[in-house]
Amino acid sequence: MKMTGARMVVEALALEGVECVFGIPGGSVIPLYDALYDAPFPHVLMRHEQAAAHAADGYARASGKPGVCICTSGPGFTNILTGLATAFMDSVPLVAISGQVATHLIGTDAFQESDTFGSSLAAVKHSFLVRSLEELPAALKGAFEIAVSGRPGPVLVDLPVDIQKGEGEFVYPSGSVFGKDRLTPAENLERLGEAADLLENARKPVILAGGGILFSGASLELLEFAEKLQIPVATTLMGKGSFPENHPLSLGMAGMHGTPQANLALTEADVVFAIGTRFSDRTTGKLDQFLKNAALIHGDIDEAEIDKIVPCTVPLVGDGKIILSSLSRCMAGTQKREWTETTGSWKREYPLADGKETRLVPSSLFDRVSGASDDHWPAVADVGQNQMWTALFYKSERPRTFLTSGGLGTMGYALPAAMGASLSRNRTPALCFAGDGGFLMNCQELETCARYQIPVKIFLLNNSALGMVRQWQELFWNERYSATTAVSGCRFAALAEAFGVDGYTCNTLEDLEEILPGVLASPGPALVDCRIPQEELVLPMVPAGAALKDFIYRVKTEQPAAAR
Question: Using the 8-state DSSP alphabet, how is residue 103 labeled?
Fold first, then answer.
């Protein structure tokens, strides 16, 4: 069938089952936007290209399907680049379509031209520069294939405006563009027996679950495996939600701001089964002390991550779901009652909150919000202190209900990502937790929320500070608060109202309790400005360069307190 290149894009998106796209029009994508006018799926007009990428990212994380975003050339693309890098670091499947100047103008410094292909290479899994109409169908098909194959990630299709306007025959590939062998990740499970023996004979085994569990849809397999062998489970930040956090075997999050029980368990373990995770510095702490006395079984779909940071005793290369189900079949299951009693005692010894707080502080805020909301709703955290408070205090019971920027740590992520998450679930309410600093980086999307009536419930943890940097300045830089504590005069509730969003201000816990039922029950978006004390710190904390066991628990000390 003969059609324009722009129409080919719309047809391809429809064939791939795309349910909505996020973007902003511009000169080099006018033909594409003309074709979108008749598309069988909606386009969500964002107010900044970075937010469009984050919205597509939130859509993908909450749904498990690729998110799609569109931008124009030049500044449109450079604006979207941070969102692509965010998705790349966290292995999120995205397809980004960028307009480009006409093919004969590429390389001439034309108006709104940028080296999109070259600039994108470090921030995407693959990049296509389409130079002919004949290449376009295969490039679009390949983009979706690559985005979801193996370790997921973002893919860019750069599309010159003249190719959008051109006409040709549209034949969408029915099979794989690159061949099944090229897209199928490596698999090597030859050492399953070794892994099974290590776990069967371990006295202090620990499972460390990462985001790969969520991407492979292996949460049920992880639950069944842990229960069968009675092995405690810690998660990385990206793995939060892969294992129900109210389960007796849950240790919560490990790492720099991890729970004491998770960090102590990893310190004292004799066997660690890390599945679906890479080893970032925020997880390991002091590297030469990490898993010093433990054998490591490392299962991951990306062969490149094996032995990359932490030497591995037994490698298992493959999909997390396959690894867990295959390993489970090899094992009869042995009870580790003494070890689970020990990890349980650490939970009691180091509670994160005592439940008696009457002030409006993070622990009481999350207690009230989580108690009043539905555990099916996605909860999206921005970056900074608010992120770690959410990770510690908001208990995730279901997969794909906790979203955040982990690897890149992108402030301004939460609001647009929450919008995408809500739309991916047929407008299910989404909880957005943000600090005042990060929120101001993409607050223009309040207007988008209002215009589409997306039910995002924003809880602003407002301490009038760039809180995480301030915390480091307090603990490690002699309280020299350089550029972190400028008190904002912003009336956030009024700002929300100006954009058409219901706004509230809470100075006390009683204020929050009074307005919370109405906020959560309302059909549209809402913002709650929660005035929390500036002196509140994110604790526990493992100082940079310290071992996981050397965490600061509650009281500020001159030297990190060794918990064990």
Answer: G
DSSP string, 318-330: S-HHHHHHHHHHT
Query: In this model, does residue 562 exceed pLDDT 90?
Result: no
Crossing angle of helices 467-476/385-393, nearest 10°?
A: 90
CA distances 255 to 228, 294, 401, 446, 562, Å, are 26, 17, 20, 33, 15
Nearest in space to 383 (alpha carbons), one of 62, 153, 54, 155: 54
Tell me which H or E stretch contains 438.
Answer: helix 436-439
What tens digit of pLDDT does each residue of 130-144 get? 999 999 999 999 999
Token pair of 170, please? 């549209």
What gap in Å lies between CA 494 and CA 505, rounded to an integer?
Answer: 9
Q: The tokens of 491 are what?
A: 């009336």
How far apart are the C-alpha atoms of 300 and 275, rounded to whole Å?
Answer: 6
The total of other beta-carbon atoms located within 10 Å of residue 407's CB is 18
CA distance 251 to 563: 16
pTM exceeds 0.90 for this model: yes
What is the spatial distance between Cα 87 and Cα 336, in angstroms, rounded to a whole number?
A: 38
Structure tokens of 92? 């999120």
The two three-digit tokens of residue 315, written as one number: 């490698």
Give residue 416's region: left, alpha or beta (phi > 0; psi -120 to 50).
alpha
> Which domains, ranges and CATH numbers included, belong to the chain?
2-183 (3.40.50.970), 192-349 (3.40.50.1220), 362-531 (3.40.50.970)
CA gap 52, 25 in Å, rounded: 11
- Per-residue pLDDT reduced to its tens digit, 34-68: 999 999 999 999 999 999 999 999 999 999 999 99
Report yes or no: 102 and 91 within 8 Å, Cβ to Cβ: no
| CA gap 328, 343 in Å, rounded | 23
The Cβ of residue 415 has, within 10 Å, a number of other Cβ atoms equal to 30
Cα→Cα distances 237→387, 396, 413, 475, 504, Å? 10, 12, 15, 23, 30
Q: Please write the tens of the pLDDT for every residue from 514-546.
A: 999 999 999 999 999 999 999 999 999 999 999
CA 245/CA 233 separation, integer angstroms: 9
Residue 359 scores a pLDDT above 50: yes
As a whole number of angstroms, the distance between CA 520 and CA 512 comes to 12
Task: Please state the rounded mean pLDDT for residues 479-492.
Answer: 89
**Residue 486, pLDDT score:** 75
CA distance 320 to 208: 12
